[in-house]
Amino acid sequence: MPALSRYLQQLPIWLCLASGLAQADLNIQVNDADSLATAGTAIADPMMTFYQQNQTEGIPGKLTDTWYIAGSMFMTLIQFWQASGVDTYNSVVSHDLMFQAGENYDFFSANYSQWLGNDDQMFWGLAAITASEAGLPERDGKPSWTSLARAVFNMQVNRWDNETCNGGMRWQVWPYQAGYTMKNAISNGGLFELSARLARFTKNETYAEWAEKIWDWSSTTPLLNTNLTIWNIADSTSNEADCKDAGNNQWTYNYGTYLSGAAFMYNYTNGSAVWEERVSRLLDSTFAKFFPTQFSSTNYGNGSVLSEVACEPILSCDRNQLCFKGYVAMWLAFTAILVPSKRDLIAPKLAGSVEAIGLQCSGTADGMSNLCGVRWYQPSWDGSLGLEVQMSALGGVTSQLMLLASQSPQTIDTNPNATEHHIDTSADEKNPSESKPITTADRAGAWILTIMLGSGAIGCVGWLIKTQ
User: Fold this and answer.
1) Mean pLDDT taken over the chain
2) Residue 104: CA atoms inside 13 Å, Cβ hemisphere, count?
3) Cα 454 from Cα 383, distance rounded (Å)
4) Where is this chain compositionally biased, Basic and acidic residues type (predicted)?
5) pLDDT score of 21 more than 70
6) Which of 161, 177, 222, 449 is 20 to 30 Å from the Cα of 296, by its Cα?
7) Does some domain include residue 218?
8) What is the pLDDT of residue 452?
């Protein structure tokens, strides 16, 4: 089966290690920025090959059978550029990110909106605010990156659901979608993170108020259980059970969104003790759950290597889950930068992970080198390949670059070109399953059509009379 056909399947592909020749590892020096930048480029090159191969009909930013993953890839590439200075991919990222903003610049194009979830749109909003924080140049004649992030925020808070569970974001947007009756951690945690980052970047208190609101609501549900010694973030809860039940799968990115958002709120509030405590408790949970000392007989580097423990040990991660660790690594780096008291705790975890990535990204197959696997802790390529595992590894390398540079994300003070302005999203907020309301123009058209049909019928009768 050709490589492209294998990749197009939803589930990850596992190759027989014997079928590919393993090459030397990336020889990463974890405290050397040049070494990390070189390694990041080596990982990104095959990732972009996968990207080009799997664009749907060549549409910029639209991957086969998914939409949001390209947005999160752009988010990762922007952060890599900011931390490394490598601008090789900037023109593609800038063009394709703006292209997918759609006809109304709100990342809710009519081409996809009928089947999108809130979490899908949210990731594009995070990519846009990352562009503002990193200083990605604005595009001439287009809205600012901040304005795109704001448009996503405005659409999402308009969907805040007070009819069930006293609030919260549903997983899906439209009532006809499976999952509409669920509220999940990534939709709520993702909007929390987006709100916190917009608050810090723009210094607009409205965003901070929403961040507080989302946190407070989440903590009344299993989605953010703060009543335990080790805080727990459930993946989902249901409206039918008044958000008291829990789908308790443990995923890194759920913890990462709440942790990153809390770190941005800590910085925005100039060191609030409340937010520092929240960062501390979430960091403890993240370390306890996703940096295991060992699993079965496999050594995890004494708790220094990030792992997607719910699926990684048995190689069952789907294409979404393959991406999660890369996001979380970068969000851990943000936390270390924005909450300096946590830096010494986070630094060994990121260094251990990136050192492991250097060994894992040693695969060669189908004419490509530096292929990365999902099991970072495994000291040689585990045989997986695809855009998602490359992106995750790039996020890991980028996190260490961010830590070395220790550069705070920009704000409107340092990036004044990224000022926000209003984008009208009303055209994209209509339920596609609802009948279009009848307008005056519709009625006039119907009346004209009736007259025409009536006149035609009379003419036909006259013709029949004449021919008799």
Assistant:
1) 88
2) 19
3) 71
4) 419-433
5) no
6) 222
7) yes
8) 45
Determine, yes or no, domain membership for 1.
no
Which residue range(s) make up the domain with 384? 42-424
| 3-state SS, residue 185 | helix
Question: What's the CA gap between 261 and 188, in Å, rounded?
Answer: 11
Question: Residue 374 corresponds to which amino acid?
Answer: V
Q: How many separate domains does the chain show? A: 1
Residue pair 166/223 in contact (Cβ under 8 Å)? The answer is: no
How far apart are alpha carbons 160 and 163 in whole angstroms?
9
Residue 439 belongs to some domain of the structure: no
**pLDDT score recorded for residue 6:** 38
**Element at 238 (helix H, strand E):** strand 236-238
What does the longest C-alpha to C-alpha distance in the chain come to? 101
Distance CA 328, CA 186 (A): 12
Residue by residue, DSSP assigns 66-130 as: -SHHHHHHHHHHHHHHHHH---TTHHHHHHHHHHTTTTTTSS--TTTGGG-BHHHHHHHHHHHHH
pLDDT of residue 430: 72
Confidence of residue 295 (pLDDT cuts 50, 70, 90): low
How sure is the predictor about 43, in pLDDT bands with cuts at 50, 70 and 90? very high
Classify the C-alpha dihedral 272-275-279-284 as positive or negative: positive
As separate numbers, helices (DSSP H) first and strands (DSSP E) second, the chain gives 14, 8
> Residue 19: how many CB atoms within 10 A of its CB?
9
Q: What is the arithmetic mean of pLDDT over 430-441?
A: 53
CB 250 within 8 A of CB 225: no
Tokens for 270, please give them.
């100039």
Q: Decide if pLDDT at 160 tops 80.
A: yes
Q: What is the pTM of this model?
A: 0.88
342: which residues sit within 8 A by CB, 6+ positions away? 279, 280, 283, 335, 336
Helical axes 252-268 vs 205-218, angle rounded to 10° = 140
Token code pair at residue 398: 């980028």
Q: What is the DSSP letter of 361?
A: -
DSSP classification of residue 342: G
- Quick one: CA dihedral 326, 331, 332, 337, positive or negative? positive
Cα–Cα dist 349/289, whole Å:
13
Residues present in the chain in total: 468
Please report where in the chains the tokens 């974890």 appear, as a residue.
30
Report the CATH number that the domain containing residue 214 is assigned in CATH: 1.50.10.20
Q: Is residue 386 part of a domain?
A: yes
